[in-house]
Amino acid sequence: MSDAGWSEKLLGGFRKTSDRLSENLTGITGGGKLDDATLDEIEDALIISDLGPSAASRIRGRLAEKRLGAQITQIGLKEAVAEEIADILRPVAKPLEVTAFPRPQVILVIGVNGSGKTTTIAKLAHLFTEDDYGVLLAAGDTFRAAAIGQLATWAERAGVDLVRGPEGGDPASIVFDAVKQATDTGIDALIVDTAGRLQNKRELMDELQKIRRVLGRLNPEAPHDVVLVLDATNGQNALSQIDVFKEVAGVTGLIMTKLDGTARGGVLVAAAEQYGLPIHAIGVGEKMEDLRAFDPDLVARVIAGVA
Ligand SMILES: Nc1nc2c(ncn2[C@@H]2O[C@H](COP(=O)(O)OP(=O)(O)OP(=O)(O)O)[C@@H](O)[C@H]2O)c(=O)[nH]1
Ligand SMILES: [Mg+2]
């Protein structure tokens, strides 16, 4: 996709956030002077635009530090806000890299129902094979009927092998088999699909811990990555998902999907500020090619309305 097409798509995923922010920043009073009252309004605008209280307060503090009392234009204000947002996002923009030694690198993919886990796995498999890594998938979602078939279809499209078991089988035993196969065949990256689970479903959360235990027994370093997939259209709910999955499953990084729709992507800034977890990539469509590196400067400019 061309750069223009790509930022246009991205604009969609942050539109609700950036429209709100734009609307509120435009309405700001103070006669162009950045005084305390204006800073209050900016902070409020940031909070209601999904960036959350913590990021909003940090941005306000930084603006006050640098520019309190200064004259500032509308566009200057947006530029300044974009710069502060980028400062929050830059440290967390970290692509998922295959570095484990010994191989394989085991990547466990988790999240609530329908967040985009299986599609994201296909995208990662595609990305890694393009880089000439050997990839194996494990069908750890034995819970939802048709989940195994869905992953099998993606595996075929991506041209990678899949380890599967019976529907209703024990995911931990499939994962066990997959690690052995990956090790025996010199695979670089083993990506494990898991069933969608709501934060409050105890049994499924226990199952996740069991998968982790089994992996750890085979290789104390595994899983090397525990990637939480978040649906951008869920807005602030993403934050409570991070809270719970971090606690139960030791999340090491995030991928946010569906940023091509009309999502409230601003929550990514809240997540970056509150948790500091790496954001590996973002999903911008349903196809295998629709995974993008997380570009903090571009995202910040899109949110602030100066892209
Ligand atoms: N527009 C858009 N749709 C996406 C994206 N990622 C996934 N989807 C769609 O979201 C729906 C759910 O995707 P899945 O990958 O099956 O989600 P899942 O988390 O594996 O779902 P469960 O296994 O049921 O928990 C599908 O219709 C996907 O095509 C994305 O980045 N953009
Ligand atoms: Mg799935």
Automatic annotation (TrEMBL):
Chain positions recorded as GTP binding sites: 111-118, 193-197, 257-260
Domain of life: Bacteria
All residue ranges annotated as the Signal recognition particle SRP54 helical bundle domain in the record: 10-89
SMART domains, per database record: AAA, SRP54, SRP54_N
The protein's enzyme class: hydrolase
Subunit comment: Part of the signal recognition particle protein translocation system, which is composed of SRP and FtsY. SRP is a ribonucleoprotein composed of Ffh and a 4.5S RNA molecule.
Function summary: Involved in targeting and insertion of nascent membrane proteins into the cytoplasmic membrane. Acts as a receptor for the complex formed by the signal recognition particle (SRP) and the ribosome-nascent chain (RNC). Interaction with SRP-RNC leads to the transfer of the RNC complex to the Sec translocase for insertion into the membrane, the hydrolysis of GTP by both Ffh and FtsY, and the dissociation of the SRP-FtsY complex into the individual components.
Name of the molecule in the record: Signal recognition particle receptor FtsY
Organism expressing this protein natively: Erythrobacter ani
